[in-house]
Amino acid sequence: MxxxxxxxxxxxxxxxxxxxxxxxxxxxxxxxANVAAEExxxxxxxxxxxxxxxxxxxxxxxxxxxxxxxTLANLAIATPKDFGQISPTLNFQAADExxxxxxxxxxxxxxxxxxxxxxxxxxxxxxxxxxxxxSLFDGLSDIERVEVLNxxxxxxxxxxxxxxxxxxxxxxxxxxxFQGHAEVGLAENGEYTGNLMVTGPISDKVAFRLNGYxxxxxxxxxxxxxxxxxxxVESYGFRGKLLFEPSDGVTFxxxxxxxxxxxxxxxxxxxxxxASGNVTAAFTGTPVGPLNRYVNFDTVQEGYQKNRGVSLTxxxxxxxxxxxxxxxxxxxxxxxxxxxxxxxxxxxxVTPTELFRATNPGITAAQALTLMDNLLLNPLSFSCRMTSRxxxxxVCGESQSLEKSETFSQEIRLASPTGGFADYILGxxxxxxxxxxxxxxxxxxxxxxxxxxxxxxxxxxxxxxTAYVLADTITKVRSINSALFANxxxxxxxxxxxxxxxxxxHDALHFDHKxxxxxxxxxxxxxxxxxxxxxxxxxxxxxxPQFNSYREFSNNAWLGRVSAKYEFxxxxxxxxxxxxxxxxxxxxxxxxxxxxxFAASPVAPETSNSWEVGFKSQFLDRRVTVNxxxxxxxxSGYQTTSQGTDGSGAPVLQSAGKxxxxxxxxxxxxxxxxxxxxxxxxxxxxxxxxxLFLTSTLNIKGGDPxxxxxxxxxxxxxxxLPVGDWNVNLSGNYTWTGRTLFTNLNDAANPNSPWIRxxxxxxxxxxxxxxxxxxxxxxxxxxxxxxxxxxxxxRRISGSVGGAGAIAQALPRDFDRYVGGTLSxxx
Length: 827
Description:
Blueprint lengths: L11 H7 L28 E2 L6 E2 L7 E5 H6 L15 E4 L8 E4 L15 E5 L2 E2 L13 E8 L3 H4 L6 E7 L8 E9 L3 E11 L4 E12 L3 E3 L4 E3 L2 E15 L2 E14 L6 E3 L5 H6 L10 E2 L6 E17 L2 E18 L13 H5 L8 H11 L4 H4 E4 L2 E7 L2 E17 L6 E23 L7 E5 L2 E4 L1 H4 E23 L5 E22 L29 E23 L2 E12 L11 H5 L6 E14 L4 E13 L2 E5 L7 E5 L2 E13 L5 E14 L21 E13 L2 E12 L2 E2 L14 E2 L2 E11 L5 E8 L9 E4 L10 E4 L7 E9 L1
Parallel strand pairs: 6-9, 13-18
Antiparallel strand pairs: 1-2, 3-8, 4-5, 6-7, 8-9, 10-11, 10-45, 11-12, 12-15, 13-14, 15-16, 16-19, 17-44, 19-20, 20-23, 21-22, 23-24, 24-27, 25-26, 27-28, 28-29, 29-30, 30-31, 31-32, 32-35, 33-34, 35-36, 36-37, 37-38, 38-41, 39-40, 41-42, 42-45, 43-44
């Protein structure tokens, strides 16, 4: 959609009129006790904490979508992957590893494989910033509400929120009485779930809440090699909270969580075959195309994620002031083995003898295993294993990854009382994240003459002695962020408020990268170093890596936000704001990094300047709510990846210069009666790159960024019908997402790119039956009601192996229509 380049806000009034039948997809929640008297919550209103205070959504000069637990439950939204149904600005992007799952807001997210790049969209749970977005998925339950904060939020929300933030608040302990909730669910494709929650007082000063969950689902992609589904998921975990109030005005909450997710992720069917056609056509064993749901893997996909953390939140009233402290420690672990070539051709895995006998004729298996042990940075137990392919020595060099991270964070802030001429928040923040990734990527370089031949259309011969390439790396990144921040509100009149916020940050980045290659080089064609003195064989580096580098970087920056709002009445408010966002420097800390890429590190910080103008209104005794925002944002030094800009053909991290985004977004809610609620949301955006030369001749100026649909809108409805003492609720939603470019930034200016996902719309329907006193609830739901086949994302099959150049598609859980149900009981 094209928007007036001079003034993207001129269409605000027109848009609000055209969409006056749509609505905010959020319902009321219990108001926090510290909401000021003048902010007392009325029926149908929402309380949010976008500005670190409990405030009415309708009075906050920030673009926010908020949804409470009841709405999530009625719509059968169970994981963060589905949050895009409730917000027009939020999109989820799948990947070939769970650690790479991420969000984008207003079309801006993170498009990098590197552990040295942090998200542009911050993910915050109960005030704690999560280092890796992938740790959120399948690890959350017992949610109280979700807030999607659009645009730069770093002034108050902390680490790396240059595009926005997803804020998740989980439920706290009940202090009045013991209570519990149990739920079981069943759906097609082997999905079954369970949740159990208990909460209540331990004494007059202590209360607890404990929640556990289990989830299992079979994948919808079939591996024709064994006839079994892939992308199967099994996850379970718990979250506990202990509330302690030693005296009036002093509250401490100790929280802990642990989760485990096992998945043979990610089996992605081939959508478009490789240009050569040889391997893809002969060895996928499946009909490629947009409806392909089959893979043919000879390597068993394996993967798991472990996620755990603990936090202590303290709120202390000091007279009329409130002092808040949040101390947190988190750990995350992700392991994956993948079939990188996407076929059953035997491109993955090599025995030590096969790898070394070209350079060491007559070598024995024992000697070769010793050379392999000397070569690898990671232990043999990580990089080699016994398989059916070899019965006498292990198979090594399968593509596998182990990522480990630990994070400590501390935030402390002082909030002044409200109700006077001025109120403010002062605070400090410290964040220390250590991430290590141990990675092996290997395979047959089929694009080198003599490595692979095809005697018949369905057979191939591999010269493993010269064709097998291997790289083994250990990468460690430590990111330290410390900050001071302040936010001031001035109220010259009861209707006018000026807000100014500032944050000073110091970033320090430590980068330790080691890499070795096999005797035939690595998968991106990096050169083989001259053998160190005393080395017994080419490639046996005896602990001397090809890369063995350590570097440190630091950067200081100012973030800020100013706004002015005018409340014409309690039900009508308009505001204008400007914000400066920041995302720290990044390093291409991955196995793909070349010598040139390493020398170019770090990539400069990513900054943004954003203007917003909006209004929030309610009419007809608050039966109609209309909120509309226009925005215009310029990103400088946008951190993204492109393909092969350094000549290797591998993804390369770079600063993309200018990225211009502008758009209009809104939410509208209509409540004709107490039983009927109709809601909707919309985003019309225009996101384009400025001058960006990926090579000396390829300029994608005017091209689209990745995962940035220009149009997205949704409708939601809910109707309650009393039947005797029971309540029957019918809820449904429909989400339309415009065409979207994935993976290949080089095609950003190509309107006919094969990397574009066509526009699509998905409808969901749910029927909820609630017994008297809400003791029992029986729910039935249909996902993807009209059986719209769409893909979650597109990615390139590795360019160094048999499927070189092919495009694979990640299929979502609701690629096909499916039905399910849940039964819950409150006690």
